[in-house]
Design goal:
The strands form three sheets. Strands 1, 2, 3, 4, 5 and 6 form a six-stranded antiparallel beta sheet that branches. Strands 7-9-10 form a three-stranded antiparallel beta sheet. The protein is α+β, with helices and mostly antiparallel strands. The termini are far apart. The longest helix has 19 residues. Helix 3 packs parallel to helix 8, helix 4 runs parallel beside helix 10 and helix 10 packs antiparallel against helix 11. It has twelve helices and eleven strands. The chain folds into two domains: 105 residues, 2-Layer Sandwich (Phosphorylase Kinase, domain 1), CATH 3.30.200.20; 238 residues, Alpha-Beta Complex (Aminoglycoside 3'-phosphotransferase, Chain: A, domain 2). The protein binds 2-acetamido-2-deoxy-1-O-phosphono-alpha-D-glucopyranose and magnesium ion. The site of magnesium ion has 4 residues, from loops. The site of 2-acetamido-2-deoxy-1-O-phosphono-alpha-D-glucopyranose has 12 residues, from loops.
């Protein structure tokens, strides 16, 4: 790996960097925290160029969106990310190996979680993403499509069909049951996406990776501070942000729990999240968005099943794995979650209905 102190030295940080340590367990990028002798600490990330084919465009998106948010909030250094440019003025540094690096401020006195401990926490998460969408509702610059067809299931099926026929990891034969699970729901999920394609569901600025661990909480007040990991900010349906969040907040366990019996959609968490989200968005959602809000978690959980399984079939090329069957375990765990959602779908719809009437 490149010399991290040399890399951080390329950026316009205050003071001198005194140490760099790994932080967190992202599936995609490599993340480090940087200590300095100046007033701030920083986050240094090596952006995964296999996942993000155009890092400069991605950084432009992030800079534009955070600048927009900063103009509206009380505490611009805490209520969104602050991108620190390189000394040459670019928003990234490309090292001798062609790897892309980016830096942002570390926001002190904050905490992240992997599993929602209480409905109050889920409610705060809903407020966080609702506010994020609301702050960006008047953002009117085009955003780059950072990952082609990211939550577009029609495009995912194109990739899926290719993966099944290439079978690069020679594993398709061993996961027929899981493949059937995906195929049985293909038409239903395409039907949802069709409403995005034909404009029934409007395009908005969305975060696209809203799992709980991508939300910062203020460690003193316990309240939500802001959404982080803005790599996938793009234009999409706002429903996907809700769906992806529910996939993590309302799961009784972590997304890759190998004990599938522990996996379940918790309606109390679901209701609390939706209550928080709708407190920010009730007035501004279109009728079609309200109508399909309850379906969004099923759509995104389904997409996640497909993506994990596809990566398993491909031979683990996209997600980092901690053990050989990790992508298969993730697939099965998310299948259990989707089944639990399907069983409780009527209740999910009822909860949205009564929250909308509040
Ligand atoms: C990835 O970047 P990270 O680790 O927060 C992925 C998401 C998946 C998630 C599953 C760019 O999120 O789409 O939902 O893993 N991000 C990308 O945990 O593919
Ligand atoms: Mg990410």
């Amino acid at each position: 790996m490149a010399d991290l102190l040399d890399i951080i030295g390329r950026f316009a940080v205050e003071g001198r960097a005194t140490g760099v340590r790994p932080l967190g367990e992202g599936f995609i990028n490599d993340t480090f925290i940087v200590d300095t002798d100046g007033p701030f600490r920083y986050i240094l990330q090596r952006k995964n160029k296999n996942v993000f084919p155009d890092v400069p465009a991605m950084m432009d998106n992030i800079a534009a969106v955070t600048a927009h948010i900063k103009r509206k909030v009380k505490d611009p250094l805490r209520e969104t990310l602050t991108v620190i440019p390189a000394k040459d003025g670019r928003l990234y540094h490309q090292d001798g190996d062609g790897e892309y690096w980016a830096v942002c401020l570390f926001i002190e006195d904050t905490v992240t979680y992997d599993v929602a401990a209480t409905p109050a926490m889920a409610r705060q998460g809903g407020i966080g993403i609702g506010r994020f969408q609301a702050l960006l509702s008047d953002f009117d610059r085009p955003l780059a499509e950072v990952i082609k067809g990211f939550h577009n299931i029609r495009w995912r099926f194109t990739q899926w069909d290719g993966s099944l026929s290439d079978d690069l990891g020679r594993r398709a034969g061993s996961v027929q049951e899981e493949i059937d699970f995906v195929e049985e729901r293909r038409a239903e999920m395409l039907g949802f996406w069709k409403m995005v394609e034909d404009g029934t569901l409007p395009l908005r600025v969305t975060h696209n990776d809203t799992k709980l661990s991508n939300i910062l909480f203020d460690s003193r007040s316990g309240e939500v501070l802001c959404a982080i990991d803005l790599d996938t900010v793009m234009s999409s349906t706002s429903l996907n942000d809700v769906g992806d969040a529910i996939r993590s907040y309302a799961n009784a366990t972590v997304e890759d729990d190998p004990d599938y019996a522990r996996v379940a959609l918790r309606l109390d968490m679901y209701e609390a999240y939706m209550d928080g989200y709708l407190s920010q968005r009730r007035q501004t959602l279109a009728p079609s968005e309200k109508e399909w809000l309850a379906f969004a978690p099923l759509y995104i959980t389904y997409e996640q099943v497909l993506r994990f399984l596809m990566d398993y079939i491909d031979g683990d090329r996209y997600y980092k794995i901690r053990y050989p069957e990790h992508n298969l375990v993730r697939t099965r765990s998310q299948m259990a979650l989707l089944r639990s959602m399907e069983k409780q779908y009527a209740s999910m719809q009822g909860i949205v209905q009564s929250l909308l009437e509040k």
